[in-house]
Backbone:
């Protein structure tokens, strides 16, 4: 299957960003149109799209990325003791939270230990519903 989103973590597995295919496609389209520039002129972007890296997108003036970064995602982080229901509730309480990251105590600044997507919650909920109906 094609992955529609992927978390970007640093070398210590600390959350940096969650990238959606649609965001990446838009970035590449705007790059092709000459609308993307480096945020720091001292770190130019490669001239060819094939040479772009995720770090180039993160260090660019891509407007959508700036708006995404302004979103408070702290509620999308839960402690290792959280239940699947806690993850579902976090997603219901914040429409921008379609993914929950598990860390030791639920802090965004900690190493990511797990990742739960809204599609996984739906899939598991349907399994429980089917099991309960028998």
Residues:
């Amino acid at each position: 299957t094609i992955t529609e989103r992927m978390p970007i973590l640093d070398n210590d597995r600390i959350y940096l960003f969650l990238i959606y295919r649609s965001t990446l496609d838009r970035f590449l389209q705007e790059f092709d149109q000459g609308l993307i520039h480096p945020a720091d002129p001292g770190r130019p972007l490669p001239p060819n799209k094939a040479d772009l890296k995720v770090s180039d997108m993160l260090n660019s003036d891509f407007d959508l990325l700036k708006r995404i970064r302004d979103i408070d995602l702290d509620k999308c982080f839960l402690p290792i003791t959280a239940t699947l229901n806690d993850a579902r509730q976090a997603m219901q309480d914040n429409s921008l939270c379609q993914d929950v990251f598990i860390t030791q105590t639920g802090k965004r600044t900690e190493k990511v230990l797990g990742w739960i997507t809204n599609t996984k919650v739906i899939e598991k909920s349907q399994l429980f519903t089917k099991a309960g109906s028998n």
About this structure: The chain is about 35% helix and 15% strand. The first helix runs from residue 21 to 32. The helical segments are 21-32, 54-58, 63-69, 84-93, 118-132.
